[in-house]
């Protein structure tokens, strides 16, 4: 058995090489199946491998297994309240792009039959752009995301936690994910995309729900979150967090 520091470093490298672009559903399934086989063979698989559980575990860890969605717009960093809305904003943009794509497909068909070739070419270019936005592209510069996923795997092992993989970026957790048998539910967002790890806590039913993420302190002493969707993050962390206790010691609790 390799020494612990070498183990998480090796895991980070494997995920970065083989699963860096895990974005579409088939790629996500391949990733979670590999993780369960390599690290959680004694766990029960549910939800097609996206939920790994043990009856005796009393804590739940939630992490996104999908690469961040590539964005071509947006500031370099957002205030926390705006950053929390970004998944909904991007989902809305994808939905609107899909509707516009359908409209322009009909327009292109009309232009084809009417012989308006110049307008047809313009319409087809617009269709191509809209299809890219609607389907989405993975952010390839996602070192901080891969490091967060590495920490989630190690933390679930070392802290005896169930592990739930989200299939994309989410603004909030669906209520159906909350189970009364857990004393604590930890939602691990990108914890390496900033200088300070922050934690928000709330009580849901009988569980304590924590959301943990990284941010930077701006000149006005407010915290801001870097726009990883547009600019990415290619900084390799000097060390990786491997347990819940270690993470909670390094984090600062805030109220949003």
Keywords, please?
7 helices, globular, ten-stranded mixed sheet, 256 residues, alpha/beta
Architecture overview:
The protein has 256 residues and is α/β, with parallel strands linked by helices. The protein is 43% helix and 20% strand. The chain contains seven helices and ten strands. It has helices at 4-18, 25-39, 80-114, 117-135, 143-158, 228-231, 244-250; strands spanning 44-46, 51-53, 59-64, 77-79, 162-166, 184-188, 196-204, 207-217, 223-226, 251-253. Strands 1, 2, 3, 4, 5, 6, 7, 8, 9 and 10 form a ten-stranded mixed beta sheet that branches. The longest helix has 35 residues, at 80-114. It is globular, with a radius of gyration of 20 Å. The mean pLDDT is 91. Keywords: Membrane, Transmembrane, Transmembrane helix. The chain crosses the membrane at residues 89-111, 117-137.
């Amino acid at each position: 058995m390799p020494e612990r520091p070498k183990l998480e470093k090796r895991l980070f490298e494997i995920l970065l090489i083989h699963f860096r672009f895990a974005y579409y559903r088939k790629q996500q399934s391949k990733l979670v199946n590999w993780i369960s086989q390599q690290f959680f063979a004694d766990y029960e698989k549910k939800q097609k491998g996206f939920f790994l559980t043990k009856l005796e575990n009393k804590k739940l860890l939630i992490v996104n297994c999908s690469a961040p969605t590539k964005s071509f717009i947006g500031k370099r960093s957002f205030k926390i309240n705006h950053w929390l809305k970004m998944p909904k904003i991007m989902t809305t943009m994808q939905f609107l792009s899909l509707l516009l794509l359908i409209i322009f497909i009909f327009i292109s068909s009309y232009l084809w039959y009417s012989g308006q070739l110049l307008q047809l070419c313009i319409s087809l270019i617009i269709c191509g752009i809209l299809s890219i936005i609607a389907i989405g592209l993975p952010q390839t510069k996602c070192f901080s995301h891969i490091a967060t996923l590495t920490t989630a795997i190690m933390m679930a092992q070392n802290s005896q936690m169930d592990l739930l993989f989200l299939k994309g970026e989410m603004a909030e957790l669906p209520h159906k994910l909350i189970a009364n048998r857990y004393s604590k539910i930890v939602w691990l967002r990108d914890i390496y995309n900033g200088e300070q790890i922050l934690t928000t806590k709330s009580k849901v039913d009988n569980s304590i729900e924590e959301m943990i993420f990284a941010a930077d302190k701006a000149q006005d002493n407010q915290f801001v979150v870097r726009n990883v969707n547009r600019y990415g993050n290619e900084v390799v962390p000097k060390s990786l967090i491997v347990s819940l206790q270690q993470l909670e010691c390094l984090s600062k609790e805030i109220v949003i």
